[in-house]
Amino acid sequence: MSETGADAEVVVVGGGVVGAAVFHELAARGAAVTLVEQDRGGLGSTAWSGGIVRCYHDDPELTDRALTGWRHFREFAAHTGESAAFHPCGFLYLPHPDRAGAARRETVRLSAHAPARWLTAEEVDSRFGQLLAAPARGGAVWEPEAGWLDATEVTRGYLRAGRRKGGTVLEGVAVHSPLRGGDGRLHGVRTTSGTVRAATVVLAAGAATPGLLTSWGIEHDLWAQAVQVELRRPATPVTGQPAYTDDEFDVNGRPDPDSGGIYLGHPTGRRVPGAGREPVDAAQSQLAAEAGARRWRWVPGSRSLGGLRAAECWAPDGGGRVVRHPREPGLLLATGFNGGGFKMAPWAAAETARLIGIDGNHAPPPAHDTNGTSR
Predict the structure, then answer these.
(1) Which of 276, 303, 361, 367 lies 20 to 30 Å from 127, alpha-carbon distance?
(2) What value does the CA radius of gyration of the chain take, rounded to a whole number of Å?
(3) Burial 116-132 (b: 16+ CB within 10 A, else e)
(4) 212-243 pLDDT per residue, tens
(5) pTM above the 0.85 mark?
(6) Cβ atoms of 287 and 294 closer than 8 Å
(7) Cα 185 to chain centroid, rounded
């Protein structure tokens, strides 16, 4: 790209799964969209994602957003023309006993839209008792048709499909500052390869988002936080292990058929300066093993096969942000999913298109120069 710049209707900053999904959705709807990624798409925090696709959340709004993702990912090839295998393994949510009543009610609501059922404590024991070290005291949510996908494969698929539909991807190009016109409003971004002028900037840079906003002098309440997941191989092979979230003992994960292991995550609670990767923290590994052993029989005696540690973008409400910045009309945030952005990416993409006002019969408006006048 030349120093005189290039024009787009929308520029998406960040080539993780959320940015790639937004890029594909906008291109598929006919928008002139450019995605800028400082590395290679799908190689940031997305590369460490477990790619779990399930529906249940305590908040019905989040359940509905995840339901959009579950439907989309089960038909990924039909939406994108790209192949990405959906690996069914089921999903078990073990609420804190104090939340069991509310979880049961939300499961009943969800069951009208997707395969999901509430299991009593006795039913959990009958189905999963051979795996459990501690019983599910209040019951659990069971989604038999949940599963996972390879997050990098999905992200690269979105990028290829978006290119075919007319979008432009700039990889190995870093965004360093906003491009402002004479009116003070955002009119694109300045990058290491020149400028990209656009009516809307979508910031979907994951854990890099808080640092970018701060460096641009834009107020925000986001932060980067470390996420760490262990991969452990049980001493004897385990069958029937589902993907899981356990809010009683704060553990989560899924089976990994390639290694014969099972992922085991436990919250770190640690804020970090930015999006850089860190080595696995041995003390955190020990905490995860101790928490996991309270729930799962296979954890004691299991062997560590290493782990994954990366930063994610966190927001105070935990629900994710797909909103226009209140003080920057040309800036839209698609971030802050607190480690759960993969399953929400299809909803985030559709919501971004809605907020920008791009439908399927779309013609790009006139481009603008940096003074805000039509060209």
Answers:
(1) 303
(2) 21
(3) bebbeeeebeebbeebb
(4) 999 999 999 999 999 999 999 999 999 999 99
(5) yes
(6) no
(7) 29
